[in-house]
Amino acid sequence: MKKIQVQGLHHITIVGSTKQSAVDFWQGLLGMPFIFEQPNLGNPEENHLYFDPGDGRL
Description:
By secondary structure, this protein is of the alpha+beta class. It has one helix spanning 19-29, and strands spanning 34-40, 43-51. The longest helix is centred in the middle third of the chain and has 11 residues, at 19-29.
């Protein structure tokens, strides 16, 4: 199998159980500030949460 060298990530998507558990993990544990919340256009009952990774990208 050929190895792939990764130089970085642009974004990731992870499904969480609640907004608060996501904020507790990403902001509380990893130190990435919660920036904003946006409705999921495909499913209005769900939301996308955005956190600042600290490198100027969201």
